[in-house]
Structures are given as structure tokens and as C-alpha cells.
Write a structure and sequence with these properties.
- It is built from 15 helices and two strands.
- It is mostly helical.
- The chain folds into two domains: 241 residues, Serine Threonine Protein Phosphatase 5, Tetratricopeptide repeat (Alpha Horseshoe), CATH 1.25.40; 59 residues, no CATH class.
- The protein has a two-stranded antiparallel sheet.
- The protein is globular and about 70 Å long.
């Protein structure tokens, strides 16, 4: 019996040895991350990715998530609950825990952007591009990351400072003080400005990349916030000086309505310091656009009544309406006072008269047409 076992074991060993070359193939087409990102075409994709993380499409994007309206608007005097509630935790501070999903999503998205920005510097060393291109690309990432740290420190105070790209697993980062975060942002932006590799603002020509004005504007905002939070009065002067450099003779001459035209015709003018513009075909869904527009309205019916269904989460308060004086053209450009519908609502659908049950689109149009800022 023992001999039979030895023979079987030996046969198995020979069988495995004979198959070794077959089980470990040599893939000659594999391309590593460093191989790809070192190429003239691969390296710029890192820069594009950093911009894409800001909000090119839905999902894991900082400025195009359904959580951001709640984070920035709930709990203010500008909006109140509509058909749907704003966000109980942020609006009324009810059941607000460290695991709040809205806050956690924003926090996570911020560090996703920072990581994408730091990937540029990580792969720049071996990239087959000129030193000027390397420096400019790295500095673009540094400005975007600084902008995100500005958002973080103004929302959370001190946060972990991740200063370099993590190419392997890291167990955690200690929380830095708010002062350390402000100092880091200031140091990064001052160094970028001193490098002087960024282009002047290209917003008037339709460009959307980070510019020298972008870096100075974010630095000015950082100095201003730090002046209040850290009690450093000397920072007020720094903020004013940088703001004057960014303004540099610019005047607000464009009609307010033109700035926010639906066809984007008002985007390209000297009033824009930084506007990130994305190619339409790069959007995740070409039919949805930015999702935020659906939140800021009351509910006037859905598709069955020829209406565009809104989320109805953030209805303007009378305090917000009071910010506009009568005759203020910005009011007409901000609020849609008349709703155009495809068909007349059927009041019998609700089993009662239009006046008892909301009135349908016809009455809604009349009510909205009479809606004006308080005198």
C-alpha cells in the first residue's frame, strides 16, 4: 500500500512539473500604470481625470451629486421643506451623527479629488513630456486640491492632510489642526504662483482650465477665511491685495440673465475667473444634465399632467425672496414665474375642484405670475 501511495505522489509531482509553463503564461501585451502614464498621451489623462472628478457626470463627482444641495443649502434661511424634506439632520440637527450619509459622501468625494490631483505629481517624474508641461500639469492639480482643502477646512475645521499620492495601502492619517490646513493651502498656492507656469485666465475664450487668476482667487478666499478663523488680522490685507490683482480692471457688465443662459452662451466673458467646461459627449448620461435643477421648486404635478417632475426639496423662503427688490432683473433671471405645460390638467382626476386640490397647472401659472418679492 505504501508503494502505491509513493508512486501516486511521484506521478502527481511529475504531472505538475510538466504543466508549469502552461500555468504561468508570459503576457507580452501587458502595460503597467507607469508605462502608460509616462507616455505623451497617457500623462495628460491624469490632468483630465482631476477635472472630471469635480463634476463631469453623475456618481463619484464632487459638484454633481444629489448630496451637495443638502450639504450647502439645508439649515440656511434661504430654503425650507417642500413636498420632500430638505434633510432632517442638516436642516433641523435631528439625529445628526458622525456617520451621516450626506456629509460622509461629500467628505469622501473631496479626498477622491485630492487623490486624483496627487496622481499627476506621482507619475510626472517619468513622463515623456517637457519640464514646463510637467510643472504646469502638477500645479493645476495642486490648485484643484487646494480648492478642495479650502472646502474641507471651512466645513470641518481640521482634517487629515494627505500631501502625497498613496501608491500602496495606508492605515490612516492623523487629523491636522485647522491652522495647519490653512498653512498648507497658502504654501501650495504661493508656490504655484511663484512658479508662474499657469496660463492667464482663458474663460473669455471658452477655456476652463486652472489659471493664474484661479490660484490667486482661491488664495485670496483662503486668506480671508483664515483671517477670521485664526484671528490673523494681517491676512485681511493679503486677501485684499490678491483680490485686487485678480479683478485687475474687470467690470461686471454682462447681464445677469446672460450669465446663466441655458444655452451656455454667456459663459465666455471676462467676469469668469474659472469655469470648468466639459465636452457634452463625455457626460455619463446625455439626457439628464446636472441633477441640481430638479431640487429648487415646489411640486406642480408630474408627467401625467404635462409637468416636469421636480424633487421639491428646497422651496425658497420669504427671507430669500426679500433679498430681491421689486424690479430687480436678477429676480426674473432666477425664478421661473410661468410654467409651460403640454396639456391642461384634469381636475376630476383628484376627485374635487382645482381650487381645493392645488388647482392644476392653470392655477399654478396664475399664482406664479403674481409671485413677486415682498415690497
Amino acid at each position: 500500500m505504501k508503494k502505491l501511495i509513493y508512486v501516486a505522489a511521484l506521478a502527481g509531482t511529475l504531472s505538475l512539473t510538466g504543466c508549469e509553463d502552461f500555468l504561468t503564461p508570459d503576457n507580452k501585451s501587458i502595460v503597467t500604470d507607469k508605462d502608460y502614464f509616462s507616455t505623451p498621451s497617457g500623462f495628460p489623462s491624469l490632468v483630465y481625470d482631476a477635472y472630471a472628478h469635480l463634476g463631469a457626470d453623475a456618481g463619484n463627482k464632487l459638484m454633481n451629486s444629489s448630496d451637495e444641495p443638502a450639504l450647502f443649502n439645508a439649515g440656511t434661511d434661504m430654503y425650507t421643506d417642500g413636498r420632500n424634506k430638505c434633510n432632517d439632520a442638516l436642516q433641523r440637527w435631528q439625529n445628526f451623527t458622525p456617520e451621516n450619509g450626506t456629509v460622509k459622501t461629500f467628505y469622501t468625494h473631496c479626498y477622491d479629488v485630492i487623490r486624483a490631483c496627487q496622481a499627476i505629481a506621482y507619475y510626472a517624474g517619468g513622463a515623456a513630456v517637457s519640464n514646463d508641461v510637467k510643472t504646469k500639469s502638477v500645479d493645476e492639480g495642486r490648485v484643484i486640491a487646494s480648492f478642495v482643502y479650502y472646502l474641507l477646512v471651512n466645513n470641518f475645521g481640521g482634517v487629515p492632510l494627505v500631501k502625497s499620492y498613496a501608491a500602496s495601502a495606508v492605515s490612516g492619517y492623523p487629523r491636522a489642526t485647522a491652522e495647519d490646513v490653512y498653512k498648507y493651502i497658502i504654501g501650495e498656492l504661493e508656490d504655484v504662483i511663484a512658479n508662474n507656469k499657469l496660463k492667464p485666465s482663458t474663460a473669455a475664450a471658452g477655456g476652463g482650465e486652472v489659471s493664474m487668476e484661479t490660484a490667486k482667487a482661491i488664495l485670496a478666499k483662503t486668506y480671508l477665511a483664515a483671517a477670521w478663523d485664526l484671528g490673523k488680522n494681517e491676512y485681511f490685507n493679503e486677501a485684499a491685495k490678491l483680490a485686487d490683482e485678480v479683478i485687475n480692471g474687470r467690470e461686471l457688465t454682462t447681464e445677469f440673465a446672460d450669465l446663466w443662459a441655458a444655452d451656455r452662451s454667456g459663459d465666455d466673458n471676462e467676469e469668469f475667473i474659472w469655469d470648468v467646461e466639459y465636452d457634452y459627449n463625455s457626460a455619463l448620461d446625455n439626457t439628464k444634465g446636472n441633477r441640481w435643477q430638479s431640487f429648487y421648486s415646489n411640486y406642480y404635478g408630474g408627467k401625467e399632467e404635462g409637468m416636469k417632475n421636480g424633487g421639491s426639496s428646497y422651496v425658497p423662503t420669504t427671507a430669500m425672496l426679500g433679498y430681491f427688490e421689486k424690479g430687480d432683473k436678477r429676480y426674473d433671471a432666477t425664478f421661473m414665474k410661468e410654467l409651460i405645460v403640454k396639456k391642461q390638467a384634469d381636475p376630476t382626476r383628484w376627485g374635487g375642484s382645482p381650487l381645493r386640490h392645488g388647482g392644476g397647472p392653470a392655477l399654478s401659472q396664475w399664482l406664479l405670475g403674481e409671485l413677486h418679492p415682498p415690497s
